[in-house]
Amino acid sequence: MDDSITYVFKIDSGAEVRFDVDLNRPAPGGDLPDWTLLEKDKCPHCPLPATPGARCPAAADLVPLIERFSALASIGIADVRVVRSEYEVSKRTDTQTALSAVMGLILATSGCPILSRMRPLAHTHLPFAGETETVYRIAAMHLLACFFDKAAPDLKGLETLFADIDTLNHAFAQRVKRAIERDASINALVLLHSRNMMASLLIEENLEKIRAWFRRGPMA
To answer: Where are the domains of the chain?
Structure first.
């Protein structure tokens, strides 16, 4: 499977914006803005040392996206295409929804030691996934991680994962607020956060739906 995913936004004005996400990209370097400094708005549970000049890896990776999309209004509608070597998906949606998907890809494949636990979801990216699909994928990812780690399979570990991401999102939102011109990027982050929280709050409800899939016999 190709290690790059492209999102193409075609705004109603006719403008087209393309963003390529390399899932195995090197750490960003060069002249980065101050809002990426690790010591500013550092997540309370971040394990990285705040050495002088150190950058938040997730923030540094978001710089190109923030700079390109900061002038977009979150209520704007766009025709969005998601292109990968194996497939192409398209949807007409608001820029906030599509932007949250791009941000999710970037954050999960950044050097952030907390968000990197979501990396398998990025490599098996499902554009515009629904709530139950998301719960299925997260639960499957977690259980497979237990298998690889030779740990007892236990969905309780998901509670810790969601709690860590919730704490991170609250702190990280403060960074993004200082970087944007309008509201598309921060609203996309809020949407990403709310989706994570909804998946956490409704995991049992969605697992009941998923259990039904396994109870049914083979299709005729």
So the answer is: 4-215
Which DSSP string do the residues of 3-67 spell out, in sequence order?
SEEEEEEEETTS-EEEEEEETTPPPP-SS--GGGBTTTT--TT--S---TT-B-HHHHHHHHHHH
Question: What per-residue confidence (pLDDT) applies to 79?
Answer: 94
Question: Where does the chain show beta strands of DSSP type E?
Answer: 4-11, 16-22, 77-84, 87-94
The per-residue pLDDT for 72 is 65
Residue 75 has pLDDT above 60, yes or no: yes
pLDDT tens digit string along 150-173?
988 887 788 788 888 888 888 888
Q: What are phi and psi of 156, to 5 degrees?
A: -65, -25
Q: What would the pLDDT profile of 191-209 be if each residue is shown by its tens digit?
A: 666 666 556 657 778 888 8
Torsions phi, psi of 152, nearest 5?
A: -65, 130
Q: How do 4-11 and 77-84 pair as beta strands?
A: antiparallel
Are the CB atoms for 50 and 37 separated by under 8 Å?
Answer: no
Cα distances from 29 to residues 47, 55, 57, 64, in angstroms, run: 21, 10, 10, 12
Both tokens assigned to 201? 């709050």
Percent of the chain with pLDDT over 90: 33
Are 97 and 191 in contact by the 8 Å Cβ rule? The answer is yes
